[in-house]
Amino acid sequence: MINSTCNPVTSKIAKSKHDLERIAKLRYQVYIEEQGKPYSEADHTNKSFGDVLDQEATLVMLEKQNTLVGTMRLNYLSTSFAYTQYYDFFELRKFPDIPLKTIGVCSRLAVSANHRNGVVREALFSAIYKEGYLGGYAVCFAACTPILFRLFKAYGFREYTTSYIDPVVGTLKRLLLIVDDIEHLKVVNSPFYTIAMELNVQPRFNKKLFEQIFLDFRMENEAHNT
Prior knowledge:
The protein has 226 residues and is an alpha+beta fold. It has a single domain, classed as Gcn5-related N-acetyltransferase (GNAT) (Aminopeptidase, 3-Layer(aba) Sandwich). 38% of the residues lie in helices and 22% in strands. The protein is built from seven helices and eight strands; from the N terminus they run βαββαβαβαβββααα. Strands 1, 2, 3, 4, 5, 6, 7 and 8 form an eight-stranded mixed sheet that branches. Strand 2 and strand 3 form a beta hairpin. Helix 3 (118-134) packs parallel to helix 6 (191-199). The longest helix is centred in the first third of the chain and has 18 residues, at 17-34.
């Protein structure tokens, strides 16, 4: 359980059909009713929003007094649906030496409008980090709108390639988190740093590959802006 002073929240992993239905309805409230995004997968009759990736995902649920207030999804690239959906999108050909079973993708962050505070947000991100690391992932990809970039950056995610223009969402920044890059997590004061220390996170890959990719992107970006 993750507690605030007077607003206790609990995190758990979705296990049942009922859990999936609750998640789909919260997503519908946030993505469709509130943000007005025209996702083709949305079920307007039942006011739910799910997709095929949910079938292979780890779905984190955050509850307050038995009410679902937040959710986030983690998929592994070693599963068929995630591989098909994300391999080209995240340009994973740039990482040929990284086993697919160690690559995760975070998506479908949704928090109810009256619970968008630091406690709920940090609980969701922390749960995903813990579940992913304990599940064997060393690299986590994510895509976010520009308005959320600062949030993801504060947790240690970094841009490594150009933005993608999605027909539904618009501009999406494509981000990468090296889960065991303790030095970077400490430098940016990421909440993940404390968790990494608690879990005794150990390096799994040589960071030189990633650092070169980050450097190439920065140089390309600087050249484009001059």
